[in-house]
UniProtKB/TrEMBL annotation:
Regions annotated as coiled coil: none
SUPFAM superfamilies named in the record: BolA-like
Entry protein name: BolA-like family protein
Record lineage: Bacteria, Pseudomonadati, Pseudomonadota, Betaproteobacteria, Burkholderiales
Family according to the record: Belongs to the BolA/IbaG family.
Transmembrane segments: none
InterPro entries tied to this protein: BolA, BolA-like_sf, BolA/IbaG_stress_morph_reg
Length: 80
């Protein structure tokens, strides 16, 4: 799976204001900004993103995905 495919998969299942991906085709790091993360702890945010991948992690199409998940407000504060 390439970065564009992974980005499209996440975006199809989660309303994102921003997605950055870096990886080697199996191991990925993502920065994801979504208003759907409002009021959720980090683990719930990660679970929400993993849910967009469906079986892709179980079938090893995406071997590893680590991420930082921000609300738009948190992202704006990071960028300031």
């Amino acid at each position: 799976m390439n970065a564009d495919q992974l980005k499209a998969l996440i975006a199809a299942g989660l309303a994102c204001e921003h997605i950055e991906l870096d990886g080697d085709g199996r191991h990925w790091f993502a920065t994801i900004v979504s208003s759907e993360f409002e009021g959720k702890r980090a683990i719930a945010r990660h679970q929400r993103v993993y849910a967009t991948l469906g079986d892709k992690m179980k079938t090893d199409e995406v071997h590893a995905l680590s991420m930082k998940a921000f609300t738009p407000t948190e992202w704006a504060a990071q960028r300031a």
